[in-house]
């Protein structure tokens, strides 16, 4: 049993190493044009080794994309945890922008064209929108943000995030996803900080 357990741990470690390489490759160059053989060549491993990640190209891509968003979410939450209450929301949105900064245009294009991977992006966009709503509610309760309807702000931000994710914001503004998230952070914080002009509807 100990030998089997060590083998399992070694296999898991190798799989994580492969996912790390796939994340870097895909973010820089996209994934649609790569065959499994191409991926194996770029990662300097055999195809059978690459199949430790998943049993087909499509599943390998989805696993790598899901891994990217999972790791990004962990880093975002870690950065936000260190922020003071009045900065948590803006740190969250800026951290999202920072995680999207290294993403290439080809990766975005391939995401949009491959439904299973795009669904992962959509799922994470919805999670991020819910997180923003939670952070607004926390900020209002702590008195560091103006008293607003957190559900409304969350819903509004979710629509913008969806527009960023599906490309309509870029089409309208020319901003890439990272730039759009930074502008969203500016917009949200300018309207919610207590230094902002009080709305007659607040």
From TrEMBL:
Taxonomic lineage per UniProt?
Answer: Bacteria, Bacillati, Actinomycetota, Actinomycetes, Streptosporangiales
DNA-binding positions are 35-54
Keyword Nucleus on this protein? no
Q: State whether keyword Chaperone applies.
A: no
Protein name (record): Transcriptional regulator
Q: Give every HTH tetR-type domain span.
A: 12-72
Q: Which InterPro entries match?
A: Homeodomain-like_sf, HTH-type_TetR-like_transc_reg, HTH_TetR, Tet_transcr_reg_TetR-rel_C_sf
Q: Which domain of life is it from?
A: Bacteria
The organism is Thermobifida fusca TM51
Gene Ontology molecular function, alphabetical = DNA-binding transcription factor activity; transcription cis-regulatory region binding
UniProt keyword annotations, A-Z: DNA-binding, Transcription, Transcription regulation
Segments passing through the bilayer: none
């Amino acid at each position: 049993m100990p030998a089997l357990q060590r083998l399992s741990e070694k296999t898991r470690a190798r799989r994580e190493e492969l996912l790390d390489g796939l994340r870097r490759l895909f973010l820089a160059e996209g994934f649609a044009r790569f065959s499994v053989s191409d991926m194996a060549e770029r990662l300097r491993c055999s195809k059978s080794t690459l199949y430790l990640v998943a049993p087909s190209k499509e599943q390998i891509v989805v696993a790598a994309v899901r891994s990217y968003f999972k790791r990004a979410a962990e880093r975002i939450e870690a950065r936000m945890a260190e922020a003071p209450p009045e900065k948590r929301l803006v740190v969250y949105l800026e951290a999202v922008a920072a995680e999207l900064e290294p993403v290439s245009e080809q990766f975005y294009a391939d995401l949009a064209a491959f439904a299973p991977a795009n669904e992962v992006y959509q799922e994470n966009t919805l999670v991020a929108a819910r997180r923003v709503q939670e952070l607004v509610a926390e900020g209002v309760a702590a008195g560091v943000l103006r008293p607003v309807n957190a559900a409304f702000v969350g819903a509004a931000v979710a629509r913008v995030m969806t527009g960023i994710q599906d490309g309509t914001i870029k089409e309208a503004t020319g901003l890439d996803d990272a730039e759009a998230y930074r502008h969203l952070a500016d917009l949200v914080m300018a309207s919610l900080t207590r230094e902002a002009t009080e709305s007659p509807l607040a």
